[in-house]
Design goal:
This protein is an alpha+beta fold and 242 residues long. Helices cover 24% and strands 12% of the residues. The protein has a 5-stranded antiparallel sheet, sandwiched between helices. A hairpin with a 3-residue loop joins strand 3 and strand 4. The protein is globular.
């Protein structure tokens, strides 16, 4: 009698569904990580406002705690090289900046919201890679995402220019800076003050042999409009921004 061919019996397994009848659900380790005890997020994760190309933007990014200060000659040379390489790319333009010990200020122009996000992301990635090489470390460099303030009026732009270019006075006072903090001319050497043409009664010459780390503004507000509120003084102490 011929051996009968054994038939494979396949068993259909039941797929586990969420109790509420929908796919998905929480997975172990997913989601945003909690902050250490007592810490709070500096920039709320909200939907960013729409951005028109005619409005410049003041952005700020903060360094993680425990890292070396940024106001160091060697560090600044690395940062200035990063600014020069990324100051004009794909609808994103860095017009001015200020380097403080624990944070960076930028005045930028962008074609739209997408160009701003991509431009800032590319700039910060470039900075993080360069400083990690310099400091012989790995890992993230900045805390969360950048803070932004869209500038819509000549007054806002002038206040932002004073805040960025003269930000050092908010930290060390209104007296002339020491050689470590500034220059003999009385401007902040760790900023784009050399490339700014809106000083009252003064014009400073950029250092020889240094590639411009910024580009000239294209928006009316940042190139012309703000001047209606008066030129800046190198010793002007900026007020806080809203």
């Amino acid at each position: 009698m011929a051996a009968r061919r054994r038939k494979d019996r396949s068993v259909q397994r039941e797929l586990p569904f969420h109790r509420n009848g929908r796919w998905g659900g929480a997975r172990p380790g997913s989601g945003r990580k909690p902050l250490p005890a007592g810490a709070r997020r500096s920039v709320p994760h909200r939907v960013r406002a729409k951005l028109a190309a005619r409005f410049p933007v003041h952005t700020t990014v903060r360094l993680r705690k425990g890292l070396p200060p940024l106001r160091n000659r060697k560090v600044y040379q690395v940062l200035r090289g990063c600014f020069a390489a990324a100051c004009a790319r794909d609808g994103f333009r860095v017009v001015h900046y200020s380097v403080q010990s624990t944070h960076l200020h930028f005045l930028v122009e962008a074609a739209d919201r997408k160009a701003l996000s991509r431009g800032m992301q590319g700039l910060l990635i470039r900075i993080a890679k360069a400083l990690n090489r310099l400091w012989h470390r790995k890992g993230s460099l900045f805390t969360e995402r950048f803070h932004e303030h869209i500038l819509r009026t000549p007054r806002e732009v002038r206040n932002a220019l004073a805040y960025v270019l003269n930000n050092v006075w908010r930290h060390v006072g209104s007296h002339l800076p020491s050689p470590r903090s500034g220059t003999p001319e009385g401007i902040d050497a760790f900023s784009s003050a050399y490339w700014f043409d809106g000083w009252r009664g003064r014009r400073f010459r950029p250092p020889a042999g240094v590639d411009p780390p910024v580009v000239r503004p294209r928006t009316w507000l940042l190139s012309t409009g703000w001047r209606r509120r008066g030129l800046l003084r190198p010793d002007e102490v900026p007020a806080g921004l809203a």
